[in-house]
Amino acid sequence: MEDNLLLLSNSQTHNMGFLEHAREALVEFLDGRRSIYFAPYAAKVSAYDSYTATIQEAFKPFNVTVTGLHTVDRPAAALRDAEVLFVGGGNSFRLLKTLQQLDVINVVRERVTHGELRYMGSSAGTNMSCPSLRTTNDMPIVQPASFASFGLISFQINPHYQDPPTDSTHMGETREQRILEFLDENDVPVVGLREGSWLRKRGASLALEGLTAARIFRRNTAPQEYKPGSDLSWLLTLPATFDQSQP
Amino acid sequence: MEDNLLLLSNSQTHNMGFLEHAREALVEFLDGRRSIYFAPYAAKVSAYDSYTATIQEAFKPFNVTVTGLHTVDRPAAALRDAEVLFVGGGNSFRLLKTLQQLDVINVVRERVTHGELRYMGSSAGTNMSCPSLRTTNDMPIVQPASFASFGLISFQINPHYQDPPTDSTHMGETREQRILEFLDENDVPVVGLREGSWLRKRGASLALEGLTAARIFRRNTAPQEYKPGSDLSWLLTLPATFDQSQP
Lengths: 247, 247
Hints:
2 copies of one chain form a homodimer.
Chain A: E1 4-8, H1 23-30, E2 35-39, H2 48-59, E3 65-68, H3 75-81, E4 84-87, H4 92-101, H5 105-113, E5 118-122, H6 124-127, E6 156-161, H7 175-185, E7 190-194, E8 197-202, E9 205-210, E10 214-218, E11 221-226
Parallel strand pairs in A: 1-5, 2-3, 2-4, 4-5, 6-7
Antiparallel strand pairs in A: 1-8, 7-10, 8-9, 10-11
Protein name (chains A, B): Peptidase E
GO molecular function (chains A, B): serine-type peptidase activity
Keywords (chains A, B): Hydrolase, Protease, Serine protease
């Protein structure tokens, strides 16, 4: 069976309700499935319950039951039977460290790749679908055992991609500069996914959908803009090499 | 002998030349020393030479000779005899990974702590003076062996600290939110050091100097603003515990 991924830049877009901007895409992605496990680990421990309650509320109109993965005794075992996993946003380092400690990385990778488990992410959860968390925007507030994440796709995504402010006097790096730094050290394509958009993967097909264009960065190539509706399947066939410094 | 640190938020402030905003502080910090080693490792390898040339140019008016640490055969040995080390800005992850590979962390920590080597940093170089890189703004483009850095002070600094934009529709975290996430997981004070300012440590004394106020964050305490000229020596006496989640 082919794999199915829904990778949102963000869960909530300015002036809209939680997941409201992606309502139709959600229905299409779920394809009749009525049960979701939600991983709230990008939030702080004390917020797991309230974060899960927000997701439960957001999925009520879809007649979908949401179970917080933190409420089951053995998350890895639960994921062996799950139909859909939704990994929510927050801090990517905290998220990855917890996923590693729970030992769920391999079971998710295997079942998603074999088309048995559908994977949906937003923000940090989308970042986790990449080979590595290396293109996160988050602060490294804790140290994961390694930066390797689910690796459900072969390229990197930068969620919440932002264009440089035109009138800034700030001397810190722009988002584009940060991604170019990543390309200095890694020969791996990066999709700058602006808020309001998402990637939808179905087997060998990859599409950009949503409200905003995406900016795609490759080494030795000028960044390119792609409109919603673009077929990005070619991204899945590109080579990707980490830790290969630009000469 | 007491230790001497000069920790700049940034090397260049809007509309001013390289290190121009901190000219007097530099003279005071160097205190007659005429020879500096410069660590350019936060930049990409191909830029080491040009970055070092910029620093050499900036120090000419001070009659100071700057040697790129990357130009000497054995950097750790060179640092055993050095008077002043300047660690420049760029990407903190790349910087820390390289410092670890060069095996210079311990010799710098030991000689700075004993007052034998003066330490000057800007941006990522200032971040390295902390116990950990955990409060960097940089993208984790490469994976260092650990997040532990020089540990010349007991608290954390966030360089290039930025106030939240007032008119933004962006849903990503503000800098303050990121630092509060750090405090969820670590009971360690954080100095939000705005561009144009620096910390000057002389033994048990710590002062905020420069052009802008700093914002200091502590767990379970409202963030506090401090003006340039503030005595922050009390920060050096606070306990700091990493990896202690907020209950």
